[in-house]
Amino acid sequence: MTTQTVGLDKGTKDIIKATVPVLQEHGAEITKRFYELMLGNHPELKNIFNQTNQRKGDQPKALANTVYAAAANIDHLEVILPHVKQIAHKHRSLNIKPEQYPIVGKHLLLAIKDVLGDAATDDIINAWEKAYGVIADIFISVEKEMYEETLNKTGGWVDFRDFKVIKKVKESDVITSFYLEPVDGMPFPIYQPGQYITVKAEIEGEKYNHLRQYSLSCAPGEGYYRISVKREDSIGDLPAGVVSTYLHEQVEEGSILPISAPSGDFYLEKNDTRPLILMSGGVGLTPMVSMLETVIKEQPDRKVVFIHAAQSSKVHAMKDRITEISKQHINVESYIVYDKPCEGDACDKVGYIDAEWLKEILPTNDAAFYFCGPKGFMRAAYQNLKKYQVEDQDIHFEIFGPAEDITA
């Protein structure tokens, strides 16, 4: 990546670095305006971007953080390579094309000019145009490799491929699993436990398609893909989830769903033989279940502790499956935490996971820790692990939706 920044002269880099404070102050406003302009001029891109995340402000905030990181590290863009790869995985899953990058660049510059007004001088706009070209080339290059890698896998494909729902199982009051097989009957690739697929929902009456990414919730090599989807009901001013409602209420056994090939950089490191600690909140258990089912098949002697937090048994998915695994495998322990248990609910802790409790139940902090769930759960989990003196390199997590810093 460093060689690609050679095309940026010192003057351009100096201008970019000088705009860092401006991005800190106006970044969210610029990116919000960017999406308004781009989607207004190119409404067909609404087939790609999650409109719920637009309304909530999550997508503009995530883009602002990415732009800020690129500006702050313009001399050494290799620093942001892990972040680039994480986004590139999502782009590959969404089938983002190289020809879409100039559209993004054009409207990002328009948004900067629109928000900053006269402060966005020609020198600043020209510097950002050059810098965006370099950054876009990095993304395109990384994504090209990912597309090629996907195609080279047995049964791999690019774009969307039709899968049939062969089984639909209600896991809790709000979570339902969908078992998927390819319509064409041809091979399809295995994946790393923790990865996700993108579902393209083509909903009657909706002007645009909707793309949503769902973690695969079973071990690889089972002969099917399984996603376990939470129905997102309306909360306050936020309407019910378009795709989750569609899946729960309209998709049945025999329905066809176009999906992308598995993707993602959050997955189980199988070379690690230390104890494995899996922590999940709500529907965040989906990648954790995939990891658990993989370990009992491929690392049957590895110590595993599975901790799941939910409001109550009514919304606790796959409880029986986790209990069954714990009983059948002496190396697996499982714990349940309910913060609003129903009458008669059995659990190991009422309330929330905390560092003191983790110290009581876990065998060691020299272990591999993976966690996933709502953002509040994620922040608390990270803080608890740091209180438990877990090393950063042993902490792994996945955020559903646009990337966000939970470590602050």
Automatic annotation (TrEMBL):
Annotated site (Influences the redox potential of the prosthetic heme and FAD groups): 90, 398
Entry keyword set: Detoxification, FAD, Flavoprotein, Heme, Iron, Metal-binding, NAD, NADP, Oxidoreductase, Oxygen transport, Transport
Catalytic activity, reaction form: 2 nitric oxide + NADH + 2 O2 = 2 nitrate + NAD(+) + H(+); 2 nitric oxide + NADPH + 2 O2 = 2 nitrate + NADP(+) + H(+)
Organism name: Virgibacillus halodenitrificans (Bacillus halodenitrificans)
Active site: 101, 143
Binding site for FAD: 196, 212-215
Binding annotation for NADP(+): 282-287
Primary gene name: hmpA
Coiled coil regions, renumbered to chain: none
Annotated site (Involved in heme-bound ligand stabilization and O-O bond activation): 35
Protein family membership: Belongs to the globin family. Two-domain flavohemoproteins subfamily. In the C-terminal section; belongs to the flavoprotein pyridine nucleotide cytochrome reductase family.
Co-factor(s): heme b; FAD
Record protein name field: Flavohemoprotein
InterPro entries, A to Z: Cbr1-like_FAD-bd_dom, FAD-bd_FR_type, Flavoprot_Pyr_Nucl_cyt_Rdtase, FNR_nucleotide-bd, Globin, Globin-like_sf, Globin/Proto, Hmp
Details of cofactor binding: Binds 1 heme b (iron(II)-protoporphyrin IX) group per subunit. Binds 1 FAD per subunit.
Pfam family, one: Globin
Record remark: domains: Consists of two distinct domains; an N-terminal heme-containing oxygen-binding domain and a C-terminal reductase domain with binding sites for FAD and NAD(P)H.
